[in-house]
Write a structure and sequence with these properties.
two-stranded antiparallel ribbon; 60% helix; elongated
């Protein structure tokens, strides 16, 4: 706060911070008053007192203010040669004229109108002065005492002095603003002028306002009758609204300076209809531009906008959310149609709207219009398969057609409309049409490939047949595929458990390979009838290793002679190559670096002999190798 005070002092040249002043969103004025109060009560530390004094803080702000104004007065005198300061004159931004006026009834504190509860230097000055007033009235005050008080500027009729003071402020307000319609909470030079003026009106209503004061107020232009005052105040706000907006069509809930101007204007119209509005007020309102029947005025205004729309667009089919010149023309026209249907729209207005080209059943009119555009599209393109987002003469024909199909599914499409669309060639159930189209592609695939096992990513005639078939299988599993479609797909050869069907197919190919080759040692990349049998067999071994191979499948593979353990599989594969080598060469003396079908057979045979010497070679394998002609004690071979 001290930083803000120094900021204020550097900017303003003094530390006389007003009570309600805010500096950087902080209440600096209140804070400084708190420091002064703490200083008076001895609760402010000496170090802080020193800091504030160095900053230029005056502990008695009133004295400092008075001395400041006196300096300005002397400055004025040096320049002008006199002290006849005009009442509204400002010197260096300070209202010197108003200050000098207050000195006429003031001493050190600015005046002797001491509030009853005022404390000065710890003494109840206000209460003491009230006691002097009472003693004066009772004749108990000596002449000497009265003389001293007179010399100090004590007013024996303080209310008169205060009243005159406030009246001067009222005249000052009138000179500046041009009227005496003082807002209720307006303050003039720190005095609540608005509140004071309201108390004068209340006093006049209670017949307690002195006649001379009443006369002075009325001559100044004050309207003392609160009802007249209320009307004048509202009228002034209406004129203010018109000056700003350019019209007097005040919305019902509109507030002007916190006053319900819209409600007041509605009340004036109601009073006009009842014949209770004074002629002079009616005349003033009409001159201000008030329309007494705003509903008719608004209707005619919206009709003008409708005619403007019709001339521009060539029709009166105004969209529901359309605005014309910032007015909701679409909503208004929908309201007129609703009033027509409910019999609440007058015959004259019906005639006017029909002459303007308004169709009362806008939906039928628009449907026929869009159907014409569809026929136009068909004549040009030769079909009714309107592309998505296609527009015909600025109208979104594709969205309209989608809406017709949606209405057909909901059972909300009228039969005559349905018949007209179907005769025009529109497929109202495109989902069924698409399903049947995909079925034709599936039958085409089945006839070509001999089965219906369509790969997931397969496309047929640029259509994702694999994805479509997977979707049908999922719908079947979840019970969402109709019985008729299930039957059709089963007749086309679709297997619902495609994975099981494919496994059986590959197993048949394995048995076919075994019948031809005499074993199940299928090379890794071998294909059988276009299917990668070697890769499939490896996946079965991997599934067995992970424990995910079904027991019945594992049993069938083992019975067919498949070695599922990959290490055993590798030994068997190399033994088969050894037998193949012997059949070709007539012996098993395989050279150390010899490769058979890309496999290092010589090195493998060397490992078997080493395992035999170490005692790690299984007896059944040793027996099979010996029967094949392998010599284990031939060191030359090592």
């Amino acid at each position: 706060m001290l930083d803000r005070l120094l900021q204020f002092q550097q900017r303003e040249g003094h530390c006389l911070v007003p009570h309600n002043h805010i500096e950087d969103d902080a209440r600096l004025g209140r804070w400084l008053e708190t420091q002064r109060r703490l200083k008076r009560t001895g609760k402010l530390g000496s170090r802080r007192i020193q800091i504030l004094e160095e900053a230029g803080v005056a502990w008695d702000a009133r004295d400092a203010r008075w001395n400041q104004m006196l300096k300005l007065l002397l400055q004025y005198k040096d320049r002008e040669g006199h002290t006849q300061v005009p009442q509204n004159h400002q010197e260096e931004g300070q209202n010197l004229g108003a200050w000098l006026t207050t000195q006429g009834v003031a001493k050190r504190g600015g005046h002797c109108l001491v509030p009853s509860k005022y404390i000065e230097d710890g003494e109840s000055l206000g209460r003491w002065l009230s006691e002097q007033h009472r003693m004066k009235r009772d004749g108990k005050l000596t002449r000497r005492q009265m003389q001293l008080l007179d010399e100090d500027g004590v007013a024996w009729q303080p209310y008169d002095v205060k009243w005159n003071q406030m009246f001067k402020l009222l005249l000052q307000y009138k000179d500046r603003e041009g009227h005496t319609q003082v807002p209720r909470y307006h303050q003039e030079e720190g005095q609540n002028l608005g509140y004071w003026l309201n108390t004068q009106r209340e006093a006049e209503r209670l017949c307690s306002l002195k006649l001379d004061r009443q006369d002075r107020l009325e001559k100044a232009g004050v309207v003392l009758d609160p009802r007249t005052q209320y009307w004048e105040s509202k009228f002034r706000l209406l004129v203010q609204y018109k000056d700003r907006e350019g019209h007097t069509q005040v919305p019902y809930n509109h507030q002007e300076e916190g006053q319900d101007l819209g409600i007041w204007l509605t009340a004036q119209r109601a009073a006009k209809r009842r014949g209770a509005l004074k002629l002079d007020r009616q005349d003033r309102l009409e001159k201000a531009g008030v329309v007494w029947d705003p509903i008719t005025h608004q209707w005619e205004s919206m009709l003008d906008r409708l005619l403007q729309f019709q001339q521009r667009e060539g029709h009166c089919l105004v969209p529901q959310d359309h605005t014309e010149d910032d007015a909701r023309l679409g909503n208004w026209l929908a309201t007129q149609r609703w009033l027509k249907r409910t019999g609440k729209l007058g015959s004259r207005r019906i005639q006017i709207l029909e002459e303007a080209g308004v169709a009362w059943d806008a939906k039928d009119f628009r449907w026929n219009q869009m159907f014409k555009l569809l026929l136009q599209y068909k004549d040009r393109e030769g079909h009714t398969q309107v592309p998505q987002n296609h527009q015909e003469e600025g109208q979104n024909l594709s969205i309209w057609l989608m809406a017709q199909r949606a209405a057909k599914r909901r059972g909300a499409l009228k039969l005559d409309r349905q018949d007209r669309l179907e005769k025009a060639g529109v497929v109202l159930d495109p989902y069924t049409h698409q399903w049947e189209s995909m079925l034709d592609r599936l039958l085409q695939f089945q006839q070509r490939e001999g089965h219906s096992l369509v790969p997931q990513n397969h496309t047929e005639d640029d259509a994702r047949l694999g994805n479509w078939l997977a979707t049908q299988q999922r719908l079947k599993r979840t019970g969402k595929l109709g019985s008729r479609r299930i039957q059709i797909l089963e007749e086309a050869g679709v297997a619902w458990d495609a994975k099981g069907f494919r496994w059986n197919q590959m197993f048949k190919l394995l048995l076919q390979y075994k019948d031809r080759e005499g074993h199940t040692q299928v090379p890794r990349y071998h294909q059988e009838e276009g299917q990668n049998l070697g890769y499939w067999l490896n996946t079965q071994r991997e599934a067995e290793r992970l424990g995910s191979l079904k027991l019945d499948r594992q049993n069938r593979l083992e019975k067919a002679g498949v070695v599922l353990d990959p290490r055993t599989q590798n030994w068997e594969s190399m033994f088969r190559l050894l037998v193949q080598y012997k059949d070709r060469e007539g012996h098993t003396q395989v050279p150390h670096n010899h490769q058979e079908e890309g496999q290092n057979l010589g090195n493998w045979l060397k490992e078997q002999r080493r395992a035999k010497r170490s005692g790690f070679l299984k007896l059944d394998r040793q027996d099979r190798l010996e029967k094949a002609g392998v010599v284990f004690n031939d060191h030359k071979c090592d």
